[in-house]
From TrEMBL:
Protein's recorded name: Probable transporter MCH1
Transmembrane segments: 48-71, 83-103, 115-135, 155-177, 189-214, 226-248, 329-347, 423-446, 452-480, 487-507, 539-557
Region ranges (Disordered): 1-32
SUPFAM superfamilies recorded: MFS general substrate transporter
Main subcellular localisation: membrane
Compositionally biased spans, kind Low complexity: 7-31
Keywords: Membrane, Transmembrane, Transmembrane helix, Transport, Vacuole
Stretch forming the signal peptide: none
Compartments where found: Vacuole membrane
Entry membrane topology: Multi-pass membrane protein
GO cellular component: fungal-type vacuole membrane
Source organism phylogeny: Eukaryota, Fungi, Dikarya, Ascomycota, Pezizomycotina
Protein family according to the UniProt entry: Belongs to the major facilitator superfamily.
Pfam families cross-referenced by the UniProt entry: MFS_1
Amino acid sequence: MATPSNSDQSPLLRSRSSSTLGSLSSHTSISDASPNLKLRHKTRALRAVAFVVSIIGALCAGSITVFSLYGHLFQSRLHYSQFQINGIASVMSLSMYIPVPMIGYACDRVGPGPLSFLASILLGGGYGLAAGLYHKGLEEVENGGKGVKTTFPPMVFAFVAIGVGTSCMYLSAITTCAKNFGQGKYRGLMLVAPIASFGLGGMVLSQIGSRILYETQPDGARDVNVFHFFLFLCIVLAILGLIGTFSLRVVDEEDLIDGAVEELERSGLLEGSEVFRRRAHREYGAIDDIDDDAGAMDPARDDEDDNARLKKAWLLNAETRRFLSDHTMWWFGIGFWLIIGPGEAFINNLGTVVGTLYSPSTRSNETSVATHVSIMAAVSTVARLLAASLSDLLSPSPHSQHIQTGFPTSLPELRQKMTISRVVIFIAAAIILSIGTLVLASGAVQEHGERFWIVSGAIGAGYGAVFSLTPIIVTMIWGVENFGTNFGILALTPALGSTMWGLIYSAEYQAGARNSPSLAEGADEDVFCYGTRCYSSTFWAMTISIWIGAVMVLWAWKGRSGWSKRGIVI
């Protein structure tokens, strides 16, 4: 198919010089290609500020990953059961992931700034409420009551707010980076920077909690002071959300939208569209006999901002429909669910898994939960950056940042002789993740806490690499202009996986606890579990799940009408 000439281009493309998307995204349509040197410097400064704020915001949003640092204290201090702790963790995970499609949809259409403001309210309020409830529960337990009865329902509500707020802050950060740095040799690394920062946040905040905001027990052991830790997060996240309200923006968004429209038009996917049906068969300002929507897109209208807004909305809606109708997306999404779910469940239950390694008589040799939270966070961060770097250096990349259509314009820039597909790196990361679950399932670390670093390290590395490669693959195949919505749809799967595996693990743990000797003579109920009976079957099943998920992703790439056969560069 020949590329249309300028005279054949649709009215929407020819309106580019006169329209603006500034009103859509906090005046973000500032051209980086402007001949005005001062304006170019301003544009680069805006990108740099947005990038720095994205990194810091994602770092602090990583507070949600340190649940294991204090989750077991809900059990020992407030007398929550394992099901109740997993209930909080699951609700937090669900509230973080379930709203992501709507949050991503809003982020694509109104910009990341308003989402950052919402994150400030939700995270500040959520952690503030959790701090108050924890303090209240401690007082009730000290007075002989049961803090769980009065604190559990509102605590669930607090962690719902925390989950939604984290989603808003995280998605606004990665969407800003995806759209601002969607072009260039290292676009994968720039996208993964806030994702890696999110993982690093777990290590940084766990160290702050365990080394600064801690309390010393009568036996000399240190535990995080949950009340002070929650107050710290409340203040820091509320302030960061407010800063992001004014600094997170997508620069030069109009060119991004117009470039995507051109790509789709060249590929022939716009043929038959009512919006693009009118071609340049008329003089400027003439009115064709078309439907109202297309008429609203007329560049001759006085309201050019409205024209640009409708063009953007049409494009994003069209790309959403194309994303949902792509069968490879469903194979990829299901595979991602089967792989990432076990990792999410392990992170949420790390504290109680470590607690199963030793019986009460040898508890002095127990390894530290904070240590393995830090190991997971550190290894996950390195794996995210390494996977993104390998993706940029070794994998082929399409010439543009827009949706791939199989049209010749999607062919890669050949920078090296040998390339390794991002799918290969993705599957390798999944296998590393399965090694961690396999070692734990085998019982090799039972009574050997010094070996647990193999489990936390492998799961952290595999989880981090898979989570960093997923948004990169989304942007490479389906473009960046609708990234928030597309990635938001896929981000539903970790919530489902985390909830499913969390419930399975809780059921096995509780069953093992009922068959364990009581902690104290005469105790009515033992809520603690020790030994492989508490986790082995669950982690064997997790291992198999990861392997099945890897096969599904491989099928999306090499199977019938897969990415490889459609000429998709990945």
